[in-house]
């Protein structure tokens, strides 16, 4: 979804829920069916509309009624409400009164008399007569599950020509007995595409994959639940909007539905027994058959009463008949969270007892090997006062909110369920592990602490970074509560790292700093070194440059009672985040004896030294570091962090081949990299849709600083993608909102935006500012971008001598760094500068450039090189077709437009004429949506202002629109 023409792009603004959207989504087939049933003379008298709670029956019924009215049919609508069931013939009376109108006093009196006498036959006659006299007529009854039984029976017997009854009810609550010719329309939950469209409508932004997935998992596509979930998240500010896309905050958890929510009130109406059973099942259901026994113990209800409660929950659609899992995960979460912490702990302890007993039975000796007492895994012990709380106390009204038993009904028949979690609604191993870990975390001190800590830590370590960081953080927090003595410090270190990965920088910073200020006597020098580096990393993640500047001084670290190794490592990392690489190198050189004491101690400092050398134009130590000679002796998390840091450096230089080789050597793939690194990989490989999706999410959540050479590489490369797609103003907004340490890539991107708009003076000023800042920091890495662009700008301005100076600087950087990117930039820039004075040298350079670009195998880079070489006659013009396809693969619409122009100029056919026309229209509409003037549009498209005006006029005529806003909407939504 593109932002509207009048919407200034704001990255990371809070979402607002918009309930003003138009018609129904995903109900086209059902709408056609009900229209067909109600439209013909021979149609059925009664149509039943079924669907679970919140599925959209009321909206569907209203829409059907509006269509009937539009066709000239009289429509009477009646809504039933809770409490109607206790008033016999109330619904029938309301229908008679609605049909007869205010002046039919005699019939009104007879209807009231029928109610007083509770005479269904008399009421049926009155209703039948009223309907027949007003035929053709349609009567719409909504929420009939609340109606009185007598009225439903009357409605079920009505049969009159020209009369259509449409009755909507939750699940199977329909008039009984129903006529033989009654028909049903069943509304099912929305599928994933329609659910995503519904989210987009309510948020006025396209949901990203993670948001759409979590909504689908929690609501199953039930529209009422979708709205309730989105309302909860937006009220808490958990949904952010970036570039017309909606993202969920990294720290967002499911909200608890309010007491007046339809799903909560539906459960509350079932009574105390059913509520108590639901509360227990919200925790115990995945256990299978033991869940009912434990529910009875916890609530104090008899097995028969528990069975009756389950049956009522199933009939109300709260839980599923097969398995007792909640129909909606959102409802289960709400019920579970309405329990007190003590209640959740006791229920979870019962669940843990069952799970551990199953584990011990399957693998004898597990508990003993973990140093756990034999009885810890016993379900009887887990349910005892010592471990899980006294069931009698837990089941009392005061403790559990359950009612005192008032008499057991006959034994209820409830479905049986497999006892293993895999067969109990938790089919995947990851879900089984998550359920187990959640229960252990909730059980807390009520289960064996040592075994709980061991299991939670093991499960947390099995989760791949970036997949479920919120859950890992929760589990590790539980280990801190359960841990005492020396092990507590290690647990704190783990939770600080988990907070960093989960994006909870404030929590990570607080824990890491507390560890450094009060290290106690249990943390080793290596653990304190890790804590120091983590503190700096989370501070950088918060973009707190003032704190980073303080941490870059020795004075700040001297105040901490930690070893010199931790102080040096932390200060070095802070200096690096501030791009003060010369100081990094000097500090590490002075303190080498402190940190070069072993593989684990020197891992981070040595990587920092190699990075500093690379930044300062000395790449030799960095190339040696790529081999990771200490890898066999490093801890897995340390090795992973080093690989990520090295990969980011290679990606920043555009060296995809070396980056992949690094990952392959360690048995890693791009999918296991952190989000920032995955963005860089997607950008280089031309998977720009995926890159933008990741970038929007990171920018919306404020995760901007990369742990690589250039802290603002993410917004810079994002702006580059947007610019290549014609999103000029959006790219500029992204760049303007970013400020931080020296960033060559950011200055280069700002200059490219200015150049695209024809502002060579502004571009030159930006480039020179960037070069001055780099020179002040002795920075060499990344300046090749700036020198190459400055050579192009000065050459375009006719200042060839200055352009040659830029080329000389660029050539020295290329030769010293050995960077393929720098060499390619030099070749392309020299071809531009030398094309008039030395065309042979320019063409020779372009031939080498094409060969080099192909060897680097970066789609966008290859395509731009081919276009440049073809335009200069350095290679056959037919390569323009290859470039055209590559630009299409990346979605670089602006460059694809330029290539079409080059193809026509070369006398070559542009493939897909209709598609080319549509792409031109879309690009022009995009430029209008970016609020560019005609002059700016002309500069972007590299045509005259008159030609730009003519194109706009033709587009207005072809689309039949009059304003820019209408034109943008028509083209970008595909309605023309």
From TrEMBL:
<dbReference type="GO" id="GO:0005737">
    <property type="term" value="C:cytoplasm"/>
</dbReference>
<dbReference type="InterPro" id="IPR016032">
    <property type="entry name" value="Sig_transdc_resp-reg_C-effctor"/>
</dbReference>
<dbReference type="Pfam" id="PF13191">
    <property type="entry name" value="AAA_16"/>
</dbReference>
<dbReference type="InterPro" id="IPR000792">
    <property type="entry name" value="Tscrpt_reg_LuxR_C"/>
</dbReference>
<feature type="compositionally biased region" description="Basic and acidic residues">
    <location>
        <begin position="383"/>
        <end position="396"/>
    </location>
</feature>
<dbReference type="GO" id="GO:0005524">
    <property type="term" value="F:ATP binding"/>
</dbReference>
<keyword id="KW-0547">Nucleotide-binding</keyword>
<dbReference type="InterPro" id="IPR011990">
    <property type="entry name" value="TPR-like_helical_dom_sf"/>
</dbReference>
<dbReference type="GO" id="GO:0006355">
    <property type="term" value="P:regulation of DNA-templated transcription"/>
</dbReference>
<protein>
    <submittedName>
        <fullName>Helix-turn-helix domain-containing protein</fullName>
    </submittedName>
</protein>
<dbReference type="InterPro" id="IPR036388">
    <property type="entry name" value="WH-like_DNA-bd_sf"/>
</dbReference>
<keyword id="KW-0067">ATP-binding</keyword>
<feature type="domain" description="HTH luxR-type">
    <location>
        <begin position="914"/>
        <end position="971"/>
    </location>
</feature>
<dbReference type="GO" id="GO:0003677">
    <property type="term" value="F:DNA binding"/>
</dbReference>
<dbReference type="InterPro" id="IPR027417">
    <property type="entry name" value="P-loop_NTPase"/>
</dbReference>
<feature type="region of interest" description="Disordered">
    <location>
        <begin position="368"/>
        <end position="427"/>
    </location>
</feature>
<dbReference type="GO" id="GO:0004016">
    <property type="term" value="F:adenylate cyclase activity"/>
</dbReference>
<dbReference type="InterPro" id="IPR041664">
    <property type="entry name" value="AAA_16"/>
</dbReference>
């Amino acid at each position: 979804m593109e932002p509207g023409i009048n919407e200034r792009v704001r990255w990371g603004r809070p979402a607002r829920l918009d309930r003003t959207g138009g018609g129904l989504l995903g109900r086209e087939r059902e709408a056609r069916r009900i229209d067909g049933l109600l439209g013909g003379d021979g149609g059925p008298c009664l149509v039943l509309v079924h669907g679970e709670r919140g599925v959209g029956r009321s909206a569907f019924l209203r829409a059907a009624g509006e269509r009937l009215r539009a066709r000239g049919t009289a429509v009477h609508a009646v809504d039933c409400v809770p409490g109607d069931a206790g008033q016999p013939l109330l619904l029938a009376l309301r229908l008679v009164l609605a049909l007869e109108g205010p002046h039919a006093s005699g019939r009104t009196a007879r209807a009231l008399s029928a109610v007083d006498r509770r005479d269904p036959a008399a009421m049926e006659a009155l209703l039948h007569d009223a309907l027949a006299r007003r035929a053709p007529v349609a009567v719409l009854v909504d929420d009939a599950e609340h109606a009185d039984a007598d009225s439903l029976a009357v409605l079920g017997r009505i049969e009159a020509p020209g009369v259509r009854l449409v009755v909507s009810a939750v699940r199977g609550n329909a008039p009984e007995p129903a006529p033989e010719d009654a028909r049903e329309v069943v509304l099912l939950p929305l599928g994933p595409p329609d659910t995503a469209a519904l989210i987009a409508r309510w948020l006025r932004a396209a949901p990203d994959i993670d948001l759409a997935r979590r909504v689908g998992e929690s609501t199953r596509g039930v529209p009422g639940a979708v709205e309730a979930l989105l309302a909860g998240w937006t009220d808490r500010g958990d949904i952010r909007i970036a570039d017309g896309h909606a993202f969920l905050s990294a720290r967002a958890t499911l909200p608890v539905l309010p007491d007046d929510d339809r799903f909560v009130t539906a459960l509350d109406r079932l009574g105390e027994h059913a509520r108590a059973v639901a509360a227990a099942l919200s925790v115990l259901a995945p256990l299978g058959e033991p869940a009912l026994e434990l529910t009875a113990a916890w609530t104090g209800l008899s097995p028969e009463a528990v069975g009756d409660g389950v049956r009522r929950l199933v009939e109300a659609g709260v839980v599923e008949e097969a398995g007792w899992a909640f129909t909606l995960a959102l409802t289960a979460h709400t019920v579970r969270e309405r329990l007190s912490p003590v209640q959740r702990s006791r229920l979870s302890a019962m669940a843990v007892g069952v799970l551990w007993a199953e584990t011990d039975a399957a693998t004898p000796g597990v508990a003993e090997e973990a140093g756990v007492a034999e009885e810890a895994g016993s379900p009887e012990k887990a349910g005892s006062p010592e471990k899980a709380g006294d069931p009698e106390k837990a089941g009392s009204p005061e403790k559990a909110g359950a009612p005192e038993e008032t008499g057991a009904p006959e034994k209820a028949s409830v479905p049986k369920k497999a006892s293993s979690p895999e067969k109990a609604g938790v089919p995947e191993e990851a879900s089984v592990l998550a359920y187990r870990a959640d229960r252990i975390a909730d059980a807390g001190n009520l289960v064996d602490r040592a075994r709980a800590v061991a299991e939670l830590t093991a499960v947390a370590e099995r989760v791949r970074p970036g997949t479920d960081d919120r859950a890992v953080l929760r589990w590790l927090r539980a280990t801190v509560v359960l841990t005492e003595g020396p092990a507590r410090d290690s647990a704190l270190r783990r939770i600080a790292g988990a907070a960093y990965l989960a994006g909870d920088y404030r929590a990570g910073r607080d824990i890491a700093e507390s560890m450094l200020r009060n290290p106690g006597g249990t943390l080793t020098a290596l653990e304190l070194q890790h804590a120091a580096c983590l503190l700096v990393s989370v501070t950088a993640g918060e973009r707190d440059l003032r704190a980073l500047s303080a941490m870059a001084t020795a004075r700040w670290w001297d105040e901490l009672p930690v070893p010199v190794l931790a102080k040096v490592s932390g200060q070095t990392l802070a200096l690096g985040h501030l791009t003060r690489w010369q100081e990094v190198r000097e500090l590490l050189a002075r303190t080498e004896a402190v940190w070069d004491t072993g593989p684990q101690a020197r891992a981070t400092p040595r990587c920092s030294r190699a990075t500093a050398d690379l930044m300062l134009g000395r790449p030799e130590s960095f190339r040696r570091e790529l081999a990771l000679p200490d890898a066999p002796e490093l801890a897995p998390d340390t090795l992973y962090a080093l690989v990520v840091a090295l990969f980011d450096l290679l990606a920043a230089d555009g060296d995809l081949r070396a980056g992949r080789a690094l990952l392959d050597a360690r048995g890693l793939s791009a999918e296991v990299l952190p989000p920032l690194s995955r963005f860089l990989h997607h950008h280089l490989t031309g998977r720009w849709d995926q890159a933008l999706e990741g970038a929007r999410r990171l920018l919306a959540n404020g995760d901007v600083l990369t742990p690589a050479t250039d802290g603002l590489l993410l917004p810079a490369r994002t702006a580059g993608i947007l610019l290549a797609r014609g999103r000029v103003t959006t790219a500029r907004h992204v760049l303007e909102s970013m400020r931080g340490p020296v960033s060559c890539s950011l200055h280069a991107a700002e200059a490219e935006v200015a150049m695209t708009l024809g502002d060579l003076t502004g571009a030159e000023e930006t480039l020179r500012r960037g070069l001055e800042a780099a020179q002040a920091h002795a920075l060499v890495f990344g300046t090749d971008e700036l020198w190459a662009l400055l050579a192009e700008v000065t050459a375009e301005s006719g200042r060839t001598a200055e352009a040659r100076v830029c080329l000389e600087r660029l050539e020295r950087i290329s030769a010293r760094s050995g960077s393929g990117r720098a060499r390619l930039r030099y070749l392309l820039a020299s071809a531009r500068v030398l094309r008039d004075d030395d065309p042979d040298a320019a063409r020779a350079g372009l031939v080498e450039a094409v060969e080099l670009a192909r060897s680097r195998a970066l789609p966008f880079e290859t395509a731009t090189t081919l276009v440049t070489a073809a335009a200069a006659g350095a290679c056959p013009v037919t390569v323009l077709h290859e470039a055209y396809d590559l630009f299409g693969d990346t979605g670089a619409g602006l460059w694809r437009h330029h290539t079409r122009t080059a193809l026509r100029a070369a006398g070559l056919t542009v493939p897909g004429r209709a598609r080319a026309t549509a792409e031109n229209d879309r690009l022009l509409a995009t430029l209008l949506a970016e609020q560019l003037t005609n002059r700016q549009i002309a500069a972007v498209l590299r045509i005259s202002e008159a030609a730009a005006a003519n194109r706009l006029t033709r587009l207005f005529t072809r689309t039949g629109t009059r304003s820019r806003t209408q034109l943008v909407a028509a083209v970008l939504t595909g309605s023309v």
